[in-house]
Amino acid sequence: MEKLRNVAIIAHVDHGKTTLVDELLKQYDKKFVMELLNDNNTKPEISIRANILKTSRDDLFHLLRLKNVDCKKGTLPDSMKVKKLPDFGAQLYTVQDEAAQLVCLKLEPQAGDKVLDACSAPGGKTTYIASLMKNNGRVDAWDIHPHRVKMVEEASKKLGITMIKTDVKDASEYVPLLNSHYDKVLLDVPCTGIGVIRKKPDIKWQRTAEDIFEMVKIQEKILNTCSEYFEEELKLSCEKYTGDSDGCQYLYGECLPKKDVCLEATSESECQSKTPYNKII
Q: Which of 57, 67, 71, 176 could make a disulfide contact with 50, Cβ separation 3.0–4.6 Å?
């Protein structure tokens, strides 16, 4: 009865479905959940990433200050926070959350690597990986939808990147020729969007428990398929809260992970998992 009362108190009209709140209360105390839900009702800062192929974060920061843009340096090497997007120098930066930038940094791409970004659209992580590789090597960027592949191509062109090869491909379909083909694999698997409620508040009312479980099935299929494509240590990214699948969660970023599975993505600590994969970041 106490648990139901807690859920009823927290599941305020602005916070979303009781199902989500109930899941949060299973893992965290009421005070923390209240703070999280309230935070989800605030407008997030705009994060941008310096295009390190054309400038540096410091140079971009000084340029924006000279142009009277309200900005500050972010917590990651190439990130900045702005109140409003500048109306100049579009090739010098791209909009990207720090959580997404962190995943690329943890992947540790090197010049000359062969990297697969199997769910790549709209291209933020794809282009950052290519930038960290100094536009030297190869990044294969897939998406199941042709119009979203076009988004990756446009993002690459804007930032002056030439080593990304795009393809319309279903990442859950196994390609034997790609066995042990890549040095690193990144998966931003399809997700429910629960991790970005601040940006898409309608998600609070649209998602159901059934959505989460169905999404996990798709994610597992993609994970199992793409785990065949790397040579040595697998490095994967699986975005945002998805729910349980055989006792584990695949997630990163602005999600809320289980305490015993993963630390929040703003931490430098690596996720721990009960999955058969070497690393999930």
A: 57
